Amino acid sequence: MNRTIRSTARTLKPSKTANDGLPVIKRFTVEEYHRMGEIGLLSEADRCELLRGLIMEKAVINPSHRYGLQQTTDLLTEIIPKPYRIVSQGPITLSDSEPEPDLAVWIGPVQRYRARHARASEIVLLMEVSDSSIVYDRGEKLQIYAEAKIPVYWIVNLQERIVEVYTLPRGGRNPTYRSRIDFAAGMAVPVVVAGNTLGTISVDEILP
User: Fold this and answer.
1) Which of 93, 96, 191, 195 is the most exposed place for a label (fewest CB within 10 A)?
2) Looking at the chain, which residues constitute the CATH 3.90.1570.10 domain(s)?
3) Closest residue by Cα to residue 51 from 109, 2, 115
């Protein structure tokens, strides 16, 4: 699904050779990634994100994806109080990644983010809307979010028409979430922030 974007392909030169003879692609730090934006190598038009040091192209947003994201954003806005901030498709800064989840709930106030993005410890909930990217969102992205100890991770699964809710992140060599609960049509998803259930969202209102 995701792949290295063309605009940076020329910068991805092998820095060394692996034991099996295959070239190793250079992985960028978060600081190097920011620098690329500052000097114009990358722009918002590139629609990319940094994952495990690799610059990856983001999926095209189709109408179903847009609908699910907008509906969830609107419904969460009615439930989650200030000073929490609901951010749609904004970058978050992790140790070796800077993903742009479809939705994130940040600890407020907004003034703390004048000169930087939110860090893992400032994020209480993340969400990805998944269609063709479902394998990636359940795999690489889930591992990245679990390793960063993001407490609650939602996947709005458009293929299977469910909302997957992951909690209890575990780091280590094989990061994952210890709990997964699926919510299907006719059910309501609890909105849990900092261990408190603030309300619920109907699955029927999220899915197109």
Assistant:
1) 195
2) 63-206
3) 2
